[in-house]
C-alpha cells in the first residue's frame, strides 16, 4: 500500500491549502518543499512582504502629505528603512510559521528537498545534501507555482537590475527607479518606492497600463498615478539595459518605430510577468503533458497520467494566490470523494496601489468582443459621504449587468479599500444575482460600501446621490 494518500509538491497558497483540506477530510497527506520555509513565493517574497511595504509606505506618505488637512500638525516624517524592512520580515515570519503550525496540527508529513515526479504514485525527494528518497503515494498534486519571467537581453542580478524579489530587499531608496512593465507587480512596487522618495518611470510595451483589466478603470488609474508623480512611457519597448557599479542605462524606443532614447536609473525593476515553475520536476520523463510551459489538466485538475494532478500557477488561468487556494480545496475534496469545484467567473483580482483597483467578472472590452448586450452603472466616490470625510474621494465603482436579465456580469472598483469592497460583488455574482438584488440591499451609512450599492442602482438609472 502507498505510504501516503496524497503528496503535494510545493507549499505555496495552493499547495499548503490543498494539503490542509485533504488532511481535514481524513487523508494521509505529505508535502514536499525545497525551500527553508513554507508558503512559496506568496508568503516569502511576493504577496505578503509586498503588502507590508505597501501599507508602511502609505502611512509614511500620509504622515508627510495628508495629516495637515485633518488638522494634525507633525514634523516631516523621517524614513527608517531598516525598521520598515524589519516589519516586513516579521510579517513574513509570522505567516510562514503559521503554515508550519497548521501542518503539525493536521498531522501532515513534510519532506524537505526538491520533488521530482517519477511516475504515477512515486515522488523522488532530493535533499540539500544530495541524498535521495522515494515517497510512495496514491495521488500527487503538483503545486510548484511560478517564477519571474526573464526579459530577453536583460540580465537580472538582483543588485542593479532586480526582479520583484530584489525590489523587496533594497538597502536604500533609489533616486531614480525604472520599472519595466505596467502590470500589477510593477505598479505596486513602483508605488512603494515612489512614496519613499524615488523618481519612478514606468516603461510599458502596450499602449495602456494593467492589461486585461477594464479599460476605463485602467485609464483613470493612470491619471491618478501620474498625478502622484509616476511617469509613464507607453507603447515603448526596452531594447537593452547596461549596468555599471553606480547604476544602469535603459535603452527604449517606440513600439511603432521612432526616435530612440535612454533613461538613467539607479535601479531597474523587471516586472514583465511570471512563468510556471516546473524546473526539475521530471514531467517530460514521467509523460505528463505540458503546453507553453503549463501543465495540461482537465476540469477536475487531472493530468494525462492517472493519479497526477496540478493546480495554481503551473496550470491555466490567472496566476493568483486565491485562485490556487480554491483549486487546492477543490482537488482535495475530489480526492476525498466529494465534489470540489471552482467558479472561474467569480475570481476577484486586486491591485494594491493607492488607490486600490479591484475587479471581478467581465470587462466592457470582453463583453463587447463577445457581442453581449449590457448596461453600465457607475458611482463616483466624490459623491460618497464617508469618502469625503476620509478625504478618499478618488475613483469610482462600476457595474456591468446583462441588458435583458440584469444579472451582474462584472464589477470594477477604483478607490480606497477597493480590495475589501469587491467581495460583495463576488458573492452577488456567485449566486447569480442582479444589480437590483444589490441595489435593494440595505447598506450602513456612512460607509464607502454605499458607493457599491449606488453603482448597482445606477444600472437602471436609480442612483440617489448623483
UniProtKB/TrEMBL annotation:
<dbReference type="InterPro" id="IPR050151">
    <property type="entry name" value="Class-I_Pyr_Nuc-Dis_Oxidored"/>
</dbReference>
<keyword id="KW-1015">Disulfide bond</keyword>
<dbReference type="InterPro" id="IPR001100">
    <property type="entry name" value="Pyr_nuc-diS_OxRdtase"/>
</dbReference>
<protein>
    <recommendedName>
        <fullName>Dihydrolipoyl dehydrogenase</fullName>
        <ecNumber>1.8.1.4</ecNumber>
    </recommendedName>
</protein>
<keyword id="KW-0676">Redox-active center</keyword>
<dbReference type="InterPro" id="IPR036188">
    <property type="entry name" value="FAD/NAD-bd_sf"/>
</dbReference>
<keyword id="KW-0285">Flavoprotein</keyword>
<dbReference type="InterPro" id="IPR004099">
    <property type="entry name" value="Pyr_nucl-diS_OxRdtase_dimer"/>
</dbReference>
<feature type="domain" description="Pyridine nucleotide-disulphide oxidoreductase dimerisation">
    <location>
        <begin position="347"/>
        <end position="456"/>
    </location>
</feature>
<dbReference type="Pfam" id="PF07992">
    <property type="entry name" value="Pyr_redox_2"/>
</dbReference>
<dbReference type="InterPro" id="IPR006258">
    <property type="entry name" value="Lipoamide_DH"/>
</dbReference>
<keyword id="KW-0560">Oxidoreductase</keyword>
<keyword id="KW-0520">NAD</keyword>
<dbReference type="Pfam" id="PF02852">
    <property type="entry name" value="Pyr_redox_dim"/>
</dbReference>
<dbReference type="InterPro" id="IPR023753">
    <property type="entry name" value="FAD/NAD-binding_dom"/>
</dbReference>
<dbReference type="InterPro" id="IPR012999">
    <property type="entry name" value="Pyr_OxRdtase_I_AS"/>
</dbReference>
<dbReference type="InterPro" id="IPR016156">
    <property type="entry name" value="FAD/NAD-linked_Rdtase_dimer_sf"/>
</dbReference>
<keyword id="KW-0274">FAD</keyword>
<feature type="domain" description="FAD/NAD(P)-binding">
    <location>
        <begin position="5"/>
        <end position="328"/>
    </location>
</feature>
<comment type="similarity">
    <text>Belongs to the class-I pyridine nucleotide-disulfide oxidoreductase family.</text>
</comment>
